[in-house]
Amino acid sequence: MEEYLNVELILPPDNDNLGISSPLLIVASDGKRYYLKNYKVKQDGNEYTLDAAFFQESLAYKLAEFLNIPSPSCATIYIDEQTLNSFPDLRFKNKFTSGIYLASEYVENSSNDLNTLYQLMFTSNQPYFKRKVKNFFDLIENKDDLSKILYFDILTMNADRFTNLGNLIFQNQEDRKKTISIDYGFCFFNPFWDIPLSGQMQKIKCLQNEKDGQDRAWETIQQFYSWSSQHNQTKYALGLTFQFLNKNIYFNKGNPFKEIHEAAMTLTPSIITSMLNEIPDEWVVGGDQQRQAYLFFLQKQLANMTEVLDLMNNNKMFSNNTQGGLLKWEKEQSMSTQ
Ligand SMILES: Nc1ncnc2c1ncn2[C@@H]1O[C@H](COP(=O)(O)OP(=O)(O)OP(=O)(O)O)[C@@H](O)[C@H]1O
Ligand SMILES: [Mg+2]
Predict the structure, then answer these.
(1) Model's pTM, two decimal places?
(2) Which one, 184, 190, 229, 249, has the greatest CB density within 10 A?
(3) Mean pLDDT, all residues of the chain
(4) Which residue's CA is the nearest one to ligand 1's atom 29?
């Protein structure tokens, strides 16, 4: 059972570009700084309860840690009546009620560089912008992690990665930048469990999709494409962030997804089950049926990852590997082209 932390202090935000849940910068009872999230959010004047967001974000953080994806640590914060009385803004402004909330450890000296670059695209001349982008790409110290992040997003059906520039942050480290992945509430297709989303399949049906092989791989790619289309980003294939990751994934040293795939293959059903059992019951609105559905989904998706990436490669979706063909996953696959 994870230990719950409390809120000790609320700090002024260090960023005016915060997302729909407007996470709050806090100091928790372990003395560390965190971004505290809410599952009740406001967008375009409407309020939504994202009833699967904490469950999913918590599960994804555990998977990210297991797979060595660069991500902050995640904590559970208990907000009680006494805390709400001490910080009235929490209750009245930020709409927190008593309960358990999710927080990610504050990444110091980080910024939303992809957003900044995107703004530059409209305000600067082409050669200047191209130079800026190149300089930025050259500064990234953990390029090998980018293929891992892309693999992880497909594995978890992270609906909010490829089109949202704010979910990769960049930590300034001397003269280099480290890419760090955050925000997993929209993994597993959408942030909802029970709440019907107009025009979309019921969550449990998405998770319990029985399809395998090429059919499943096509559906996976089409799903990302349709999210890109909803955000008018098909000009950038699966989205603006996809394009950033894609342009920085190299194939000259072999299959860039091989290492993360090998790690993912060690995610046994019993490891996934333990992760699911560690999620606080308060966040599991659908009880054991919900836990079972995610286990089923992850097993199916894990078994299909090589198929998805081969399909993407064969359709020349990776800009640094224009020869297409199948990726090489094991030494004995001598017929592969990469
Ligand atoms: N652990 C962290 N360290 C540093 N900055 C963070 C951290 N978590 C969040 N942020 C900042 O806050 C912003 C919003 O956080 P996050 O993406 O988790 O919230 P959200 O409301 O779910 O966003 P979205 O708009 O994607 O739904 C991030 O883009 C980033 O700038
Ligand atoms: Mg976000």
Answers:
(1) 0.95
(2) 184
(3) 93
(4) 166
- Tell me the pLDDT tens digit for each residue of 185-238: 999 999 999 876 777 788 999 999 999 999 999 999 999 999 999 999 999 999
Q: Residue 333: pLDDT band by 50, 70, 90 thresholds?
A: very low
**Dist CA 189 CA 177 (whole Å):** 30
- Which of 11, 14, 20, 21 to probe ligand 1 with, by most ligand atoms within 8 A of CB? 21
> Which residue in 126, 110, 89 sits closest to 9, CA to CA?
89
- 104 token code pair: 């990610």
d(CA 260, CA 265) in angstroms, rounded, equals 9
Cβ–Cβ < 8 Å for 24, 91: no
Pick from 201, 219, 188, 208: which is nearest to 307 by CA? 219
Name the CA dihedral angle for 189, 194, 199, 205, rounded to a multiple of 10 degrees.
Answer: 60
Alpha helix ranges (H) inside 190-321: 203-207, 213-230, 240-247, 258-264, 269-278, 287-314
pLDDT at position 331, please?
A: 58
Q: Is 20 in the pocket of ligand 1 (CB under 6 A)?
A: yes
Hey, which residues does 49 pair with through a beta bridge?
40
Q: Is the CB of 191 under 6 A from ligand 1?
A: no
- Give one DSSP letter per residue of 202-237, joined into a string: -HHHHHT----HHHHHHHHHHHHHHHHHHTT-GGGT
Cα 106 to ligand 1 centre (Å)? 10
Mutation test residue for ligand 1: of 26, 182, 186, the one with most atoms within 8 Å of CB = 182
- State in Å: Cα 159 to ligand 2 middle: 11
Tell me how far apart the alpha carbons of residues 187 and 56 are, in angstroms, rounded to a whole number: 6
* 113 Cβ closer than 6 Å to some ligand 1 atom: no
Residue to mutate (ligand 1; options 108, 167, 178; most atoms within 8 A of CB): 167
Contact 109, 33 (CB under 8 A): no
Buried b (16+ CB within 10 A) or exposed e, 73-112: ebbbbbbeeebbeebeebbeebebeeeebbbbbbbeebbb
